[in-house]
Amino acid sequence: MLVRFKGSAAIAGLDDLEGALSRYKPGQQVELLVNRSGTETEVPVKLGEYGSPVSAEGAAQALQAARLAELRQLVPTNPVNKVAVNAGEVGGPSAGLMFALETIDLLTPGDLTKGLQIAGTGTINASGEVGAIGGISHKVVAAERKGAELFLAPEANAKEAAAKAKSMGSSMKVVRVRTLDEAVQAIQTFRASY
Questions:
Q1: Which of 94, 164, 167, 170 is catalytic?
Q2: End-to-end alpha carbon distance in the chain
Q3: What does the alpha-carbon distance between residue 92 and residue 123 come to, in Å, rounded to a whole number?
Q4: Whether 139 is catalytic
């Protein structure tokens, strides 16, 4: 995990990273302080090209990294509440939306789904934006087989998901979501229709 550029303040997010990168030029050698398993280590990096404003992809390119993600920590108001995610065989970021919804359900009063069978997919970023995924048709088929009544799909995948559900003769409702808030609202609206 990137902590900071040597001689700079700690980096808490993409805005801080953009500020730190603005002090350097592509091709310049920099020293990064990274945290690896609790140990802070200096890592020399020759900066690559990046655009302005700096995107997560541009920052990853500048730092010669495969991918860049922000690490966020949720602190429940009641310390007794804890969430542990056992992803099992789930691989990749496409379960991000559903993990986030389950976390909300566990840490807030009431039952978000009220026992309804809800499925969905999508990446999720630190701002709560839901991103596109690959293989949406396969996920719709799996959700239908499990008896899902509602399927939450990222905006970029929603048409394909709805078309797949229709081609199967499914009664499962497919709803497009752009954000985590929209996903929660979609569940609440669907729940109210019962």
A1: 94
A2: 45
A3: 9
A4: yes
DSSP string, 36-103: ETTEEEEEEEE-----SSPPHHHHHHHTT-S----------SSTT-------TT--SGGGHHHHHHHH
On the 0-12 / 13-18 / 19+ scale of CB atoms within 10 A, 162 is buried
pLDDT above 80: residue 178: yes
What's phi and psi for 86, nearest 5 deg?
A: -105, 100
Give, in order, the Cα–Cα distances in Å from 22 to each of 54, 57, 58, 150, 157.
9, 16, 12, 45, 35
The domain spans of the chain are 2-62, 93-192
Fold of 93-192: Ribosomal Protein S5; domain 2 (3.30.230)
Q: Which of 8, 22, 139, 146 is catalytic?
A: 139
Longest alpha-carbon distance in the chain:
61
pLDDT of residue 134: 92
pLDDT in tens, 50-70: 766 666 677 777 777 766 666
Residue type, 5: F
